[in-house]
Amino acid sequence: MSCSDVSRRGVLGLLALLPAACGFQPLYGEGAPAARMSGRVDVGLIEGEAGFAMRERLTNRLGEPADAPYHLEVKLTLTSAGTALTQENVTTRFDVTGVAEYTLTPVAGGPAVASGVVRSVTGFNAPDFVASTAFAARAAEIDAERRLAVTLADEIVQRLALSAGGWA
Prior knowledge:
By secondary structure, the protein is α+β, with helices and mostly antiparallel strands. It has helices at residues 3-22, 48-62, 134-163, and strands at residues 41-43, 70-85, 91-106, 114-125.
């Protein structure tokens, strides 16, 4: 056994002890509160096409509920604004801003156990040329809204996971 093998094993051994020494615990590790969220949250209906995509993502990430003790309500607001103009004053780039307000409450009643607001922005192009149609621009906008809804859903799940120690 060479000196480098001993030092390599020593470093690996110390790294294995590091998580316990500094209080690090994997968010979804065995026995962690976030790991116990699965199937315990019923996600309410969310309005619109983007709301459907958001609810689908939330349900996929939180697990299909079976007699879930918690109910998640989300209010999704999307706004679109032009951000780039051509020399002919035609908007060709749009930003879509999404804001999702969420509240997690016990089904049995009582105060909310988690709530908050998440925000994100994405964009899409609406090219200015004859072959470009309103249909193509709307399809790009719907895709941007769907991407945004998924991003916001992931942010909500992350925040719920971080707070799960107090409710899950």
